[in-house]
Amino acid sequence: MLVECIPRPELRAPVLELIARVQKAHTGGEFTIALADMFTSFGLSLGAGEWAKLRARGDVRFTPQSESQGAFVNQGPKRELPTEDGLTIIIPSSLAGDYITTPSSLTLKFDEEAALRGCKRVFVLICQDIIKIDADEHKVYMDLPGEKYDLCFVF
Question: 6-45 pLDDT, tens per residue?
Fold first, then answer.
């Protein structure tokens, strides 16, 4: 991990809440969480209109496949969400992958062609898939191809 982590102490509570929520729900079988609720934990700053688009995408469906692993999926219209930090997050029509849950962590690993994309405008919009998101009691780490593009928030 070569990227410098940005202090975001305000993310601690929503991240820990998401980790606990997934861990608890995982033991009971299939469950859903609103995509907008998940984004709250990822530290992305969106305007009111972008939050409305995100809420319109509905729920992420989680299907446990073992004691600590499962699959997730969310489907809807493709969305481009500009953040207040100058990034654009693209949600594909099918957002899917696998997850790992423990009492103190959550990992979301996205499938190819079904991953969130992080974009930055440099004359043109340059985008890369987010490979996975790791969250624990200390940080949120968004892994993109090439470590220099990763995002890390600590609390």
Answer: 999 999 999 999 999 999 999 999 999 999 999 888 877 8
Give buried/exposed letters for 59-79 (b at 16+ CB in 10 A, else e).
bbebebeeeeebebebebeeb
This prediction's pTM: 0.91
Q: How far apart are CA 143 and CA 145, in angstroms?
A: 7
Rounded Cα distance between 10 and 154, Å, is 10
With tokens 């999926």, the residue in question is: 73
Q: What are residue 13's phi and psi, to 5 degrees?
A: -60, -50
Please give the Cα distance from 136 to 9 (Å, whole number). 13
Cβ neighbours, 10 Å, residue 32: 13
Bridge partners (DSSP) of residue 24 are none
Q: Which two tokens stand for residue 2?
A: 């070569």
Encode pLDDT of 51-96 as tens digits.
999 999 999 999 999 999 999 999 999 999 998 878 899 999 999 9
User: Torsion-angle region of residue 97: left (phi > 0), alpha (psi -120 to 50) or beta?
Assistant: left
